[in-house]
């Protein structure tokens, strides 16, 4: 397995009905290959950021600058053919 590597992808899914009924807030942000998690209970705490090979945003169908599920890296991604997350 010399030279083998693992690619890691992350996806932010839409809220399910339970999360919507509780009026949950999305605490995830994506920019390129970086995914950031904000702790709403500790707003002064530094957000946690992680980098992945592929980042998929599916939380909302229409977001500013992103009206589709995109991924990073691209354009277009060799796995899904979609454009990158801005």
UniProtKB/TrEMBL annotation:
Residue ranges constituting the Kinesin motor domain according to the UniProt record: 5-86
Q: Which UniProt keywords apply?
A: ATP-binding, Nucleotide-binding
> One GO biological process from the UniProt record?
microtubule-based movement
The record's listing under InterPro entries reads: Kinesin_motor_dom, Kinesin_motor_dom_sf, P-loop_NTPase
Query: Which domain of life does the UniProt lineage start with?
Result: Eukaryota
A Gene Ontology molecular function term for this protein is: microtubule binding
The UniProt family comment states:
Belongs to the TRAFAC class myosin-kinesin ATPase superfamily. Kinesin family.
Q: What is this protein called?
A: Kinesin motor domain-containing protein
* Species annotation: Moschus moschiferus
């Amino acid at each position: 397995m010399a030279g083998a590597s693992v690619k890691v992808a992350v996806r932010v899914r839409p809220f399910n009905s339970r999360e919507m009924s509780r009026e949950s807030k999305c605490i995830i942000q994506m920019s390129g290959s970086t995914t950031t998690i904000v702790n709403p209970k500790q707003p002064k705490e530094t957000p946690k950021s992680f980098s992945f090979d592929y980042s998929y945003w599916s939380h909302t169908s229409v977001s500013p600058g992103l009206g589709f599920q995109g991924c990073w890296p691209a354009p277009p991604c060799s796995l899904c053919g979609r454009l990158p997350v801005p």
